[in-house]
Amino acid sequence: MPRHRFKVGIVGLTPARGWALRAHIPALRALSETFEIVGVANTSRASAEEAAAATGLPRAFASVGELIASPEIDIVSITVKVPHHSVIAKAAISAGKHIYCEWPLGNGLAEAEESHEHKADQLVEQNLPQTVRQSEDETAKRNFVLRYVQPGLAGLMDGSVSTLAPIFAAAFATGKPHEAFLVGMAASVGAGISMGFAEALSDDGSLTGRGTPWARGGITGAMTTLGGLGHTLPFLIDNFRTALTLAIAVVVLELGIISWIRWKYMDTTLWSAAIQVAFGGALVFAIGILIGTS
Fold first, then answer.
1. Which of 106, 127, 148 is the C-terminal boundary of a domain?
2. Residue 10 has pLDDT above 80, yes or no
3. Axis crossing angle, helix 150-157 with helix 240-265, rounded to the nearest 10
């Protein structure tokens, strides 16, 4: 049974000098039972035709891209200058070709590692079973939700909902936007600090895999403060009615964002998430108004 011969295309063949002429072609021809040099691509078709004629190669490609895309080519031999190694190597890898590249693979360690990672990603894509890939994707999503989304959502919900009562109670009790703003600032910052420490100290992540406790605490605290400040800042406006209207609009927006996050990451239907969040927000909002007007 005849052996399979790998068909090689050379990129960067100078007929008068260079490593391709002195090393690659002689080595490949010495192993002609395994390798067959099909053609060459240079910076132009004319240059490739000149190189092919001078070295007895059967084909000159119009461009490097044409050589890489050709079904005739199994291996791309890269003999251009170092700054061009990485881009050609990655293009060949993406096209499913093997590469044989002069040292170094890239222009510096970072570029060489990038080419290695590109090939590794392609091998994973080609060879990893779909069930394993799906399991890894699900694990990555779960870790993202546990470490970032859940702490952030908890903070946003607390900041957006729990601060409603004191802010709107102060607003309706005094009728003064500035007073409501001060209460809102105190409630938002205080709740942010409290929620941040509560999240950080509740779970060190070693058993649950929820990541670094202080990172989670920082996310929760920041989102709690942000959630409270959203409907606090409108009370910087001197006109009470305008400030109140804008604050209510911000609350509606915040509750909509919370509902969307729960639908996107928590497998909750959007309708169910909206009803739950709206009910909680309306309840706290009503309590704030009742206290403020009593």
1. 127
2. yes
3. 150
Pairing of strands 6-11, 75-78: parallel
Core vs surface per residue 195-205: b (16+ CB within 10 A) or e: bbeebbeebee
Q: pTM of the entire structure? A: 0.54
Token pair 């590794």: residue: 120
Q: Which of 163, 164, 173, 238 is nearest to 195 (CA)?
A: 163
Residue 115 confidence (pLDDT) above 60: no
Whether pLDDT at 1 is above 50:
no
Write the pLDDT tens digit of every residue in 60-105.
999 999 999 999 999 999 988 888 888 888 888 888 899 988 777 7
Does residue 225 surpass a pLDDT of 90? yes
What value does the mean pLDDT take over residues 272-293?
Answer: 76
Confidence of residue 132 (pLDDT cuts 50, 70, 90): very low
Please report, to the nearest 10 degrees, the dihedral formed by the alpha carbons of residues 143, 148, 150, 152 taken in order: 180
Report if residue 238 sits inside a domain.
yes
The position carrying tokens 């240079």 is 42
User: Residue 91: how many CB atoms within 10 A of its CB?
Assistant: 18
Number of helices (H), then strands (E), in the chain:
13, 5
Euclidean distance between CA atoms 104 and 258, whole angstroms: 51
Phi/psi of residue 77, nearest 5 degrees? -95, 115
Torsion of CA 284, 288, 291, 294, to 10 degrees: -120
Tokens 């003999």 — which residue?
A: 79
Kindly state whether residue 1 falls inside one of the protein's structural domains.
no
3 half-sphere exposure, CB direction, 13 A CA radius: 9
CA-based torsion, 261, 263, 267, 271: positive or negative: positive
- State the total domains in the chain: 2
